[in-house]
Specification:
Layout: E1 2-6, E2 15-18, H1 28-40, H2 60-75, H3 81-88, H4 93-122, H5 124-145, H6 168-199, H7 208-241, H8 243-263, H9 277-290, E3 303-305, H10 332-335, H11 351-368, H12 371-377, H13 380-388, E4 393-395, E5 398-399, H14 407-432, H15 440-471, H16 490-514, H17 522-549, H18 567-592, H19 596-608
Keywords: Membrane, Transmembrane, Transmembrane helix
GO molecular function, one term: transmembrane transporter activity
Subcellular location: Membrane
Amino acid sequence: MVVGRESRSKYSTHIIAVEEEVPTCMTENSADDEQESMITKPLLNDDHDCFSAKGGFRTMPFILANEAFAQVASYGLQPNMILYLTREYHLNMATGSNIIFLWSAATNLMPLLGAIVADSFLGRFRMILFGCAISLLGMALLWLTTMIPQAKPLPCYESDNKCSSATSFQLFLLCSCLGLTSIGFGGIVSSSLAFGADQLQKAGGQNNGWVLESYFSWYYALCTISILIAFTCIVYVQDNLGWQLGFGIPVMLMLLSTLSFSLASHLYVKLKAKSSLIVEMLQVAVASYRKRHIELSTECLKMLYHHHRGPAICLPSEKLRFLNKACIIIDPERDLTTDGTAADPWSLCTVNQVEDLKSILKVIPLWSTGMIMSVNSSQSSFSVFQAKSMNRKFSPNFEMPAGSCSMFGVVGAVIWIPLYLQIILPVASRILGRPVHLSTRKRMGIGMALSFLGMVVAATVEAKRRSLAIREGYSDDSDAVVDMSVLWLLPQFFLIGAAAAASATAQNEFYYSEFPRSMSSISSTLSLLGMSAANLVASFLMNAIDELSKLGEKESWISTNVNKGHYDYYYWVLAGLSMLNMIYFLICNKAYGPGKEDKKETTFHEQDD
């Protein structure tokens, strides 16, 4: 219990003297409000305390145009990249897919690193501008590879079907281009949404909450439209008008994105960089490691904890006790400054920081269950090769590009949300005779089940396509088109897209309900980190399957010749892993126990009764 509170004139923060470690002794809301006030107060000082002079609705066209052009340009490069690597650089399917997996991993990881740099050093405006410039450079260099003969291998000789391999320099240049686009995309995505919200902090007066909600809705709607345009128009140009124009358009769009953002520079509210939540998490880890030799005892020994200034006092919880070392004050004269802050934030952290890290570590097992779903949704390279060998003609004058099939995953994600809200829940409520609400973790489970079904359907359709190709005599001709409509691929895309929508929204809601309000922005960071890790896992799995299936000099399941390979077996492996992942999810869900969402629902039912 708390036996005393020392108030030192030299140290303005409170220091708690305790004889026994006790649970958190402040309400969660008070902790959140206190931390929120400390986070938001610095944002309104200095030369940015007058929002009426800058920011507001007039900046929205520039910010949204910047994001829309950047999204179309970036996503326009992705669907057909496997074809560019295999046709122009003569890479096999496994090597090309590996490059794309690593590129996707970097693209999903860079927004996390960009957020740290923006929040702690550069600020959001500079980070977006930096991202635009780096993306433009990467896309321009990639465009040049289509025009400079020395930048890629010589074309294959049709007479003897011999192809020269790409040199180390050519591959280095290619990977550098892709790496620059990932870094630039991360710089834009990490700060664009929050930067737009900064401009609307005072917009709408009392209706500011509605203004922000409307902005977020339009932002995500615009992103979805941009991706659909990229997967259709840009891919169509690449397929029918060539790589030079197909890669040149994204360069022009990225240039427009950079210019549209720069033109309104004098209108923006530019908040100064502050401490990043992610950096604070790292500080806890480093501080607890530095103090690893300190013994945590349950005996009646006085312990001093560092915490936020304010009347509410918080003590570290008993879970993951080793992290509590990070907030223990050993020598107040040395550890604290005259204003009560930590002299070295990498050696002494607040109790709030420690508890924030604990809340993240607690959800890690459940977070990890989403990786296999992301692995399933990252198999677009294989789908492009399947679609390329199927009948894609919808009229004598129109043939759908193979890379455009990815748009059906986006359509599936868009359809799932109204389907769930307007049909599934009302029908279930009518059948059961009471309002039905599925918890976030149940919806995460539904997403995993849909992802499993998507892999089963993908394996079944591919087995049918492959057998038909062999029956028609195309086993040695990977460019042949079998008498099977590409529409057979729609169910798997819809299922994978719906799975992603169901699970992603549920995960974000779950994190939002479990974390303190000051950590609400961490949910998108965790999702991006999960997708980045999933791409690395996908690369490892594909390499392992490729090597094992080639034993005994057999044709690899991951063959560049889609008719000789066994993509169906590969999909069945992913389906099996998805089934094991659902079991793992059930175990993690049970181990997690009741969350804050469950407690609120229990309280609601008790009051209702």
